[in-house]
Amino acid sequence: MTTVRLPLFPLNSVLFPGLVLPLNIFEERYRAMMRDLLKTPEDEPRRFAVVAIRDGHEVAATSPGMPDQTAVPQRGPSAGFGDDPLKAFHSVGCIADAATIRERADGSFEVLATGTTRVRLVSVDASGAYLTAELEELAEEPGEEAGALAEGVLRAFRQYQKRLAGARERSLATGADLPDEPSVVSYLVAAAAMLDVPAKQRLLQAPDTASRLREELTLLRAETAIIRNLPSLPASELTRGPTSLN
């Protein structure tokens, strides 16, 4: 098993390969991470791993009552993630390549990264200024009938878009606007669909592209039916959650 060790950035969201990730970095542990990434030679990728949080807080408590009423101040790289950070995170995440890291006058950072490769968490190290992880890179296997499934998912996604936007209120994407490579389709739809974190996580860790597309087809049909039967409730309200501070 070939592994790589990278800085670890936990979020209350799922990052998929090919998708853009904007971040507002203000916690000291992640500021330290960005300062170290800036030391990477310009001709090398500035990589870190993003994992979705299973049990814990994206932002550590800095004062009583923040981020919730029962919180007490915490410090350190694993603050908010318990005694064993490995158990606090989902096991499959995604490597992010930071194309832009811009430091502001107050010491915070504006970061723009892109998901590249799925990885599986092997271990987490909390001995430094921020969490690092040993990661196993996961190959993307096509599976059986991925091409045909991708076509079906794109058709279902257009219907889903139509229900979300309202055919009379907004023009829909045409076939030229959407990809036709099955793995790209699977990740784009997974990221764009209004699903909760557990559902998106299941899609990220699907064993192959075809399996991901099959699950997306089921999810899209179910979500479209729900939206059709709840016309008085804006679709965006169905899965609205707290805004990420990062």
UniProtKB/TrEMBL annotation:
Domain (Lon N-terminal) ranges: 6-224
Annotated Pfam families: LON_substr_bdg
Coiled coil: none
Domain of life: Bacteria
Signal peptide coordinates: none
Entry-linked InterPro entries: Lon_prtase_N, Lon_prtase_N_sf, PUA-like_sf
Official protein name in the record: LON peptidase substrate-binding domain-containing protein
Lineage per the UniProt record: Bacteria, Bacillati, Actinomycetota, Actinomycetes, Kitasatosporales
